[in-house]
Design goal:
Jelly Rolls; 2 domains; two-stranded parallel sheet; 5 helices; 19 strands; about 40% strand
């Protein structure tokens, strides 16, 4: 009887262990590529985990950043998400199977700001390829683009701002998902109030662009620390290049003209082989 009881308890313990940790048995949706300050992921089983460099995140995770904190996540679909301080984001879906002509990525931005650089494979069929950011007021559809989304909650009401930094983005109101679509060209934005429709596309001016990006940029001390960690791990010596803004623009122009990248249209970056690893620190000197 004691043996049977022990075996029964062992079986129950194993079953409970499997049931309590489903996220660990799943394939990760992405990996933390950069972090500054604190961020945590709450898994579908209710367990919370403090995120660190190279930590895994999973479908169903709710990710939250603390004050003065940022995190960048490299997803399995070759996209990069960056979350600003005080941001809450949920990974709703992530399916990336180019060999089967299937891609579906859906995220919910509850509050705060995020930037997404969406790369990888896209089908010519919208039914086969879908990449969406949903906010309390809007749905933004992305195809190989770079976007910034911001959600402000004031007095119990939400307002969403969506801006394109590269590529074409379609934005609809959550209250009318089959209605008006605002198409955003690069450097254009739209505002979607709670219960309302998206505003017409408006051009980003320098001040608004800076305001959107300020909270998403990692501090220099965090970048320096990360660079030191990388060099110590890889045993590499980085070369520092000092450039003026004009020289940097000229350099980027050369790179783009050679066809090695497609910043204006990241959807063209499909199955590119990575370049050989050359650590370089670029510092732009403002006159």
């Amino acid at each position: 009887m004691k043996v049977l009881t022990s075996l029964g308890c062992l079986t129950l313990a194993v079953a409970l262990g499997l049931a309590s940790g489903p996220a660990r048995a799943l394939e990760p949706a992405g990996t933390v590529a950069e972090i500054e300050g604190s961020a945590q992921a709450t898994h579908t089983d209710g367990q919370s985990e403090a995120l660190a460099l190279n930590a895994s995140v999973y479908v169903g995770d709710r990710i939250a950043t603390g004050p003065r904190s940022r995190v960048s996540i490299l997803l399995q679909d070759d996209s990069l998400l960056t979350l600003a301080p005080g941001t809450k984001l949920e990974i709703n879906e992530l399916v990336y199977k180019p060999q089967q002509s299937l891609r579906r990525s859906v995220f919910s931005l509850v509050q705060g700001s995020m930037m997404a650089v969406v790369g990888g494979w896209f089908s010519s069929s919208v039914e086969e390829s879908q990449w969406e950011v949903r906010t309390p007021t809007a749905v933004a559809g992305v195809r190989g683009s770079s976007l910034v989304a911001d959600v402000q909650n004031t007095g119990g009401r939400s307002t969403s701002t969506v801006a394109s930094l590269g590529g074409l983005i379609g934005v609809q109101a959550l209250v009318d998902p089959t209605g008006k679509i605002v198409l955003l060209q690069p450097n254009y934005f739209t505002v979607v109030p709670q219960g309302g429709l998206p505003s017409d596309a408006q051009m980003l001016d320098a001040d608004m662009l800076q305001e959107l990006l300020n909270s998403l940029i990692f501090s220099q001390s965090a970048l320096d620390q990360r660079g030191d960690q990388f060099r110590n791990t890889q045993g590499l010596q980085a070369t520092t290049i000092y450039l003026t803004p004009e020289a940097l623009a000229s350099l980027l122009g050369v790179v783009l003209s050679q066809g090695t990248t497609h910043w204006e249209d990241p959807s063209q970056v499909i199955f590119q082989e990575p370049a050989p690893l050359t650590p370089v620190s670029i510092r732009v000197v403002m006159p």
